[in-house]
Design brief:
The structure holds two protein chains of two kinds. Chain A contains no helices and eleven strands. By secondary structure, chain A is mainly β. In chain B, the strands form two sheets. In chain B, strands 2, 4, 5, 6, 9, 10 and 11 form a seven-stranded mixed sheet that branches. A four-stranded antiparallel sheet of chain B has the order 1-3-8-7, with no helix packed on it. Helices cover 0% and strands 53% of the residues of chain B. The chains are: A mainly beta, B mainly beta. Chains A and B meet through strand 4, strand 5 and strand 10 of A and strand 5, strand 9 and strand 10 of B.
Chain lengths: 110, 113
């Protein structure tokens, strides 16, 4: 079964608004990563947060990690039409494989 | 540096045939992972290779196999194709175990009829 589960499955907002996506996982992890996928294409790595970090920023992206709740959130501020994509969280445990969630489909309306 | 390349980009096969997909990682990357993506099952891990050795394997039948060459290029093979094998097959490379970020190729869209 998937390690990470994103919530919501789909999100539709107006351009300029903020978008928040959540990810929950089941076991202890070394790090959690977020990826973006434009329709039918490869994934693009967005940000990695290690288990000993609580928050990380990259441009308009803000990621938080709560290891006690086994959850993470991805915030995209001041959304743009180009942010329309699917967003996946992925968790890695030691040398084990990277496990992806089902993804959140984000639509930015002009 | 050039990104991860996958060939072919699109493929149509019939049931029972076999297929080989190719992946060239970013120069200097020694780890290659393969994923299958379908609308129903999402992104599922197939296998990971590092320095020509399979390091991890997902829960797929033995019809799915792979290998990595000394130049880090990787191939995956699917034999006796089934309709359910229709999917986007993604390859990703990374520097290795110590470098966690994975860089994905554009994928190979396989359609089995």
């Amino acid at each position: 079964s998937q390690q990470g589960e994103e919530d919501p499955q789909a999100l539709s907002i107006q351009e300029g608004e903020n978008a928040t996506m959540n990810c929950s996982y089941k076991t202890s992890i070394n790090n959690l990563q977020w990826y973006r996928q434009n329709s039918g294409r490869g994934l693009v790595h967005l940000i990695l947060i290690r288990s000993n970090e609580r928050e990380k920023h990259s441009g308009r992206l803000r990621v938080t990690l709560d290891t006690s709740k086994k959850s993470s959130s991805l915030l995209i501020t001041a959304s743009r039409a180009a942010d329309t994509a699917s967003y996946f969280c992925a968790t890695k445990q030691g040398a084990q494989k990277l496990v992806f969630g089902q993804g959140t489909r984000l639509t930015i309306n002009p | 540096k050039a990104g991860v390349t996958q060939t072919p980009r699109y493929l149509i096969k019939t049931r029972g045939q076999q297929v080989t997909l190719s992946c060239s990682p970013i120069s200097g990357h020694r780890s290659v992972s393969w994923y299958q993506q379908t609308p129903g099952q999402g992104l599922q891990f197939l296998f990971e290779y590092f320095s020509e050795t399979q390091r991890n394997k997902g829960n797929f039948p033995g019809r799915f196999s792979g290998r990595q060459f000394s130049n880090s290029r990787s191939e995956m093979n699917v034999s006796t194709l089934e309709l359910g094998d229709s999917a986007l097959y993604l390859c990703a490379s990374s520097l290795g175990q110590a470098a966690y970020e994975q860089y994905f190729g554009p994928g190979t869209r396989l359609t089995v009829t």
